[in-house]
Amino acid sequence: MLARSLYAAVAWVLTPVALLAQEAATAQGRAGRSYALRGTVTAVSPDQLTVLRNTRHAQPVTFTLDAHTAMNGVPEVGARVSVRYRVEGDHNVAVAVSAQPSLGRGHSGN
Fold it and tell me: Under a CB-based contact definition with an 8 Å cutoff, are residues 97 and 71 in contact?
């Protein structure tokens, strides 16, 4: 009886520790990976970029921009962009943004 109670107490203590370790390993694995997305800019500010994905069921995705984000072109509303990003906690942090001019800008009628 004592052994069973001791086993139950140890399991009760170690289960949350194991779950926390698993969550930390999953987060660390995501942090080391990078992802890519293409879409159209729907909003932009100095520290955020929102892109509507080029998929059948398009959903907006918001990215954090920081001093380490490599920018190729100027992302403006309506521009098509490719974004490489990593996940940090609950945030998508842009690693690199490549923007094509939005339609109707910079085109001459000639």
Answer: yes
CA–CA distances in Å: residue 63 to residues 34, 66, 96: 13, 10, 11
CATH number of 35-100: 2.40.50.320
Rg of the chain taking only CA atoms, in angstroms? 22
> pTM above 0.85?
no
pLDDT tens, position by position, 26-71: 555 455 799 999 999 999 999 999 999 988 888 899 999 999 999 9
Q: 49: which strand partners?
A: 44, 63
- Kindly state the DSSP code that residue 109 receives in the 8-state scheme: -
| Amino acid at site 6 | L
Burial label for 101, CB within 10 Å (0-12, 13-18, 19+), is middle
